[in-house]
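Narrative summary of target 7.
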Amino acid sequence: MAEDEVNYASVVFKPNQQQRSEVKREETVYDEVKVQNKATEQTPVTNVKKEETVYDEVKVQNKATEQTPVTNDVTLIYEIDETELNQLKENQTTLNAVNHNLTKLNNQLSSDNEDLKRNQTKLTLQMNNLTQVFNVLDKEVTNLTKENQKLKGKNEELKTQNKDLEAEKKNLTEQTQQMTTPWDELNVSRAQWSIDAYCPRENNNRKCNACQKGWELNSSCYATNNADQGEWKTWEEARKDCRGKISDLAVAINEEEMKIIREKSWQNNENKGYWIGLRVEDGKWKWLDGRNLTNNSWIDQSSPSDGHCAISLQNQGFKSVSCDEKNQWICKKKALSV
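Modeled conformation, tokenized:
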């Protein structure tokens, strides 16, 4: 055959006339294969005319097993030159490398995907926590806003009160300025009254005494108020009267003063006496000057009761009675040093 010769082959498969299920074990079946060789005008064939078809009979032996049906498959083996084979091997190597890289990339992407899922879970939890914190903060902001509104309202009220106080201060300042001269005159009048009270004028001469007129001197000045029964007072009322005379209800610092107070309580009525500056405070007997009663023998009741005050009886000493009772009273103040 010449170098440029082209061969054409036609393969015809002749089906086996016997049923495939009937083939027995080790039975040999031959199918007839006719191969047609068609020659072209430029490819001469010995003893073959132009366009003549020649069939070569090829017998293919199919060895069927007992339960394996015979098929008509034919395996064609092509001859590949060495260059193509090497190229295919190179392609296969390249594809294997690419496949390996793709496998590594896929594994890396899978790992990254798992990391992203874990991060997404963490972010979801953090988002939930932040949402809860935001809700708490939102409530606090709402409460602070309400409180701020209240404070603004109070601030406005305080501003109004401040303006009122400023106006009142201004009025009081003006009144004080207006009263300065009368107050000075009042002080002069009080000083004159004191002089007249302690140093009365006799025959155009003044003789000063340690106590003012109507008061008795016994180391201190005492005034026994022997008012009519209709003018008797409660303990608070009696004290108010004494304070109006620049004095207070009588207190006893020692045994001597206690005896003086008791002697001035000359009322003969055994059930009535004179208010003195001794009362119960917080379950204890206290004098008006803040001292505690240390000598319990001075009063007939050892267990003090709140709301009780002391009266002085000439023959009985001090006695505990209700402060709301009405009695006479004894005032005391310091004597004037002359």
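Residues 82-198 form the longest helix (117 residues).
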